[in-house]
Amino acid sequence: MEQRQVGRSGLWVSRTALGTMTWGKDTSEEEAGQQLTAFVDAGGTLVDTADIYTGGQSERILGRLLNAAVRREDVVVATKTGHTPEGYRPVDGSRRHLLASLDASLRRLQTEYVDLWQLHVFDPATPPEESLAAMETAVAAGKARYVGTGNLEAWQFATLATWQRAQPARVPLVSAGAEYSLLNRDADRALRPAAAASDAHLIAWSPLGRGVLSAKYRNGVPPDSRAAFPHMAPYVEPYLDEHSRRVVESVCTAADGLGVPPLAVALSWARDQEGVATAVVGPRTLPQLEGILRVEAVELPPEIRDALDDATSGRGR
User: Fold this and answer.
1) Among candidate residues 64, 79, 75, the one with its CA nearest the CA of residue 21
2) Which of 11, 8, 3 is nearest to 146 (CA)?
3) Residue 195: which of 187, 207, 184 has the closest Cα?
4) Band (167; pLDDT cuts 50, 70, 90)
5) Alpha carbons 303 and 289: distance in angstroms, whole number
6) 294 closest CA partner among 305, 304, 281, 276
7) What percent of the chain has pLDDT over 70?
8) Which of the listed residues 18, 111, 214, 269 has the most CB atoms within 10 Å of its CB?
């Protein structure tokens, strides 16, 4: 699997990353171990988690697997911080919370450091320089190797990145996470250009449009799909509208012409956009991951990429 540089940093990651949001709920620990082993065997390196995924279970499972299924040095571990669902306010970017949450993540992950620590959300009640100072402290202490952001608006990312770039000695933000696919191109409007201007790269999550671009919902909702699960249906349903159906048909047409599955077209389009370091896939099952790995080498011809660009230009949510 191709390895790519993240921003202008020394961090390199696989161009397809393994997301773990379902680990501990829809994906068992046994199947998570099978996924991780298959992913690393295929040359994948970046594994993405967060302190809030399944109440911390995602990090706990990954931590146990890092000591059993794969070697820690073969994995680039990325986690996130900032959400406080059980706190008195929903987000907390304070130095107190961020550093405490990192220590908790390291305990769950059973590791001394994370390779990429990301500010998951923007806290309007905390001065940006305080949040950034906490990230500087984590890097200085050796608990985080690199830092980035999760789901921030472009202006929020630009605010933080500009502050860090004001003095060369500060630790730069190397990445900006965002949902990005043929069904959601919001990042094209501002975040991708903002990241590029700050020498950072996009970490694109849900490149398959929450599974819709795999064409599995083309003729209805399969009983074993996310949209059939009560807790996941609201996540998928926004992409089951008429416009999304037309995009899926365009993807299927391209896939038929190339002789590849629709997911190969959708993944390649997002993963290989300029300024994207990696695309994070979140398979629930090992067969789903194996299907993704089988089409890893697919790259879209320029004329098909241009046609899909034109068909989805301006598409946002």
Assistant:
1) 79
2) 11
3) 187
4) confident
5) 28
6) 281
7) 99
8) 18
Location of structure tokens 């987000």: 91
pTM beyond 0.85, yes or no:
yes
**Which of 53, 180, 217, 239 is flagged as catalytic?**
53
| CB of 118 closer than 8 Å to CB of 149 | yes
The predicted-structure confidence for 111-141, as pLDDT tens digits, reads as follows 999 999 999 999 999 999 999 999 999 999 9
Q: Which residues contact 64 (CB under 8 A, 6 or more apart)?
A: 29, 110
Per-residue pLDDT for 309 more than 60?
yes
- Cα four-point dihedral sign 270, 271, 277, 281: positive
Amino acid 316: pLDDT: 57
Tell me the CA end-to-end span of the chain in Å, nearest whole number: 31
One DSSP character per residue, 250-310 reads HHHHHHHHHTS-HHHHHHHHHHTSTTEEEEEE--SSHHHHHHHHHTTT----HHHHHHHHH
At residue 162, the 3 state secondary structure works out as helix
146 in catalytic set:
no
